[in-house]
Amino acid sequence: xxxxxxxxxxxxxxxxxxxxxxxxxxxxxxxxxxxxxxxxxxxxxxxxxxxxxxxxxxxxxxxxxxxxx
Length: 69
Description:
13% of the residues are buried. Helix content is 78%, strand content 0%. The protein is mainly α and 69 residues long. α2 runs antiparallel to α3.
């Protein structure tokens, strides 16, 4: 499995675990792919994607605990 296949797999797993975040996860994935297609570093954009994914999930968990609205 190459890096982009792993990112895609991790995206689907995150959507399965946090279905309320599907739109945000999809948007982050598409942004990453667009940046790579525009010539940006694949490794750098993958790193940015995982950072965004972590933020998305953290926000979802905090919302589910009532810490933020």
